[in-house]
Each structure stands twice: as structure tokens, then as C-alpha cells.
Amino acid sequence: MEYIQLSNDEGTPSVEDKWHSLHVNEALASYTQEYLWRLDEQIQVPEQDSILRNVVLILTVTNNDTSLSIRRMKVALNNIIQKHSILRTRLKYNTAEDCLTQSIKPLRDEDQYYSFQISTIARQEELGNILRAEQMSRSYFNLEQGIVLRCHLIRYYLNNNVNDDLLLDGDTILFSFHRSAFDGDSASIFLHDFQLAYMNELSDNDDALKYIDYSIYEREILMTDKKDEAVAYWNSILDEYNIEKQLLLPFDHSNRDRRTGHSSSVHFELDDDLVQKMILCKGQMNVSIFQLALSVYYVYLFKLTNSQYNDICVGSVIANRYRPDLKSLIGMFVSVLPFCLKFDPTLSFSNILKHVQQLSVKISKYSYLPNKQISSLLRPHASILPFPQT
């Protein structure tokens, strides 16, 4: 799953502003880790209906002249886990302090750091069943033991007797990650480092910023004037939005005051010609595809509700890597933020698009305020999922 990465007009931090490794092994969990943990604890639904799905990366061996060594893969994974300590980080609830804590497991040869399995299949349909299980199952991970990564190797039966150490053409590698340790932007980082580690070319720096450092820094931000600045901004855009006055959208079942945690999705494809026109418009207006699509969505919602509402609030999952320091880290950073717009139907679409672009830049600037604190401004006593309606 990909997340929206908003542009940031803050520029690159100076040397003094850059975050550095704090060389710590224990700390409070990040706000996003805490949010996901509470979500999983409070909303108990069957695995197949859960909104919290594992992140799964699929790699397939496709070249007849290429094979992959399972032994070298295991060494590569250990090297990645050594570099990215979030992949060996325990999450545990401290009942005495009423808080979720994280701690990095020390590197010891006898410890288990990830789940590993090899399966043999005869038909493509079996791969689909395995993939669905990888996406939904909670049993593959153990947060209190720091098992947040799983490697599942799938061989076709024709390749099974060639060499026990080799993956051959048509074989598949599934890397599954618990949501608390991995987001969409982490995928390219992991795959890049996996390639380097497999070739024994991965470098590590003990002084490099770690995810646990980020979780400390983000709390320190809220002890400065930056918190008041962010709260003032979010108040300014949420103050006039009435959360109780929901859009009268077409529905096939009544709304509930509290979210159930059940989810479903619909996939569709845009026509190639339409996609090309969107890319052209994006370039001409100097906006992102997200800003263009969001602008179209505002217009769509306005028309769908018979032009009765000009206060429209849309929730979006954003990458939330608001500093250059965070772009090379594996971890969970995403946040769900409210994009509230006073919709003016007298404006041209290009002007609406400019307003949405300005809104996106501002939200990016103040996205460091945790989701929980933003939602409390909107509805102080809301459930853990107070927004969005759409």
C-alpha cells in the first residue's frame, strides 16, 4: 500500500537542527505505534475483516539463469535487522505506568529475530491462498518478543528436488511485516538494503538515526512552542467544522457512533487517456497527483450531496515523513489527517486546486502533531476512529 507524501516547504534542516542517534535501547512507543496497538486491542474483529493488515512484499525469481541461495538470504536478513533495529524491537504494555513501551533486542546468535517458513506448491491458486493468509494473520508475529518480520519461501514442486539451498525460476519470496514496524515508504528502503545485504555490500553506522530516536524526538517537539503553533493551526481549520453535521451521502446501511473495525475495498482502473490528461494537468498547474485527485473528490462530494454542504472534511493517510532525516528509516510513520475545506462553488476548478495545494502544504508543515491530539480538537470524547466520514 502506498501513502501520500505531501510536499514540504520547510527546506532541509541545518546541521544544528538535524536529529542524531541518541544511543538508547528503551523508550516510549511512538504515537503511531501506540495508536495502532490500541486500535488492534480495542477493536476485536475476525482477521479477514480487520482494517489492520500486514504489509507483504512479493518477489518472484524469473530468470532461468538466476538462482537465490537461501543461506545467503538468511545472512542478508540478519544484517538488515542489525541495521534497522525497528525490525527487532519489542512492544510491551506497561500496566504500572499505563503506557506502551519499546525496547530493542540485543544481537545474539541464539535469538530468533524473524519468522521463517518454506512451502512447496503445485498450483498458482495455492499461492493466492498463502498470500491472503500472510496479509491477514496475526499469529505470524509476536510484538512482545520483537518478531515483526516474516520470510516465507514458496517453491514450485518441479524445483523442490534440485537443490535444498536454491530458489529457482518461478519460486516466490514473501516478506511480511507487522504494521507497527513498517509502512509503505519502508518497502523501497528494505528492498534496496536487501539487495546490498545479499551481495554482502550493506553498510551500517551505529551513529545513524534509528526509529526509536524518532519516537523520542517527536515527543520532545510537543514540549516546545511548536506544539502551540500546531494546535493553533489545527484549531483554525477545525474550529468551524461541525463533526456532528455529517454529509448526507448515499448509503445501504445506517451509520454507527463507534467504528466496528470491519473493512472492505473496491479496486478499479482509470482509463489510460484520463490518466494522461491528469498527468498533463498536474504538470501545467504545478501540483501533485494527490492534490489534483483531492480537488476532484471535493467537487464530487459537493455534487453528490446536491450542493447542500460547503464544509467538507476528507481524511487521508499521509506518509508523515516530514523531515529529510526520516526518509531513509524503516518504520511506521503514517498518520490519518483531516483535510477540511470551505468549498466555494463560485470558484473555477483551477482556483479550487490552488486552495487545495495550499491546504496540503500547511498540513504537511504541522503533521507532527499526533493524530490523537488533532482528533481531540475535533471531538474530545470520540472513539479511537473519530474521523473521517469519507
Q: What's the SSE blueprint?
A:
Elements: E1 26-28, H1 31-42, E2 55-60, E3 68-69, H2 70-83, E4 89-94, E5 99-104, E6 115-121, H3 124-136, E7 149-156, E8 166-167, E9 172-177, H4 186-198, H5 211-221, H6 225-238, H7 272-285, H8 289-304, E10 311-318, E11 335-342, H9 349-365, H10 371-378
Helix pairs in contact: 2-4, 6-10, 8-9
GO molecular function, one term: 2,3-dihydroxybenzoate-serine ligase activity
Protein name: Condensation domain-containing protein
Domain Condensation: 65-379
Task: Give a quick set of tags describing it.
single chain; 390 residues; alpha+beta; Chloramphenicol Acetyltransferase; 2 domains; 4-stranded mixed beta sheet; 3-stranded antiparallel beta sheet; 10 helices; globular; phosphopantetheine binding; Condensation domain-containing protein
Report on this structure.
The chain is α+β, with helices and mostly antiparallel strands. The chain folds into two domains: 54-205, 2-Layer Sandwich (Chloramphenicol Acetyltransferase); 241-378, 2-Layer Sandwich (Chloramphenicol Acetyltransferase), CATH 3.30.559.30. Helix content is 34%, strand content 16%. The protein has ten helices and eleven strands. It has helices at residues 31-42, 70-83, 124-136, 186-198, 211-221, 225-238, 272-285, 289-304, 349-365, 371-378; strands at 26-28, 55-60, 68-69, 89-94, 99-104, 115-121, 149-156, 166-167, 172-177, 311-318, 335-342. It has a four-stranded mixed β-sheet with strand order 2-9-7-6, covered by helices on one side. It has a three-stranded antiparallel β-sheet with strand order 1-5-4, with helices on one face. Helix 2 (70-83) packs across helix 4. The longest helix is centred in the last third of the chain and has 17 residues, at 349-365. The radius of gyration is 23 Å and the shape is globular.
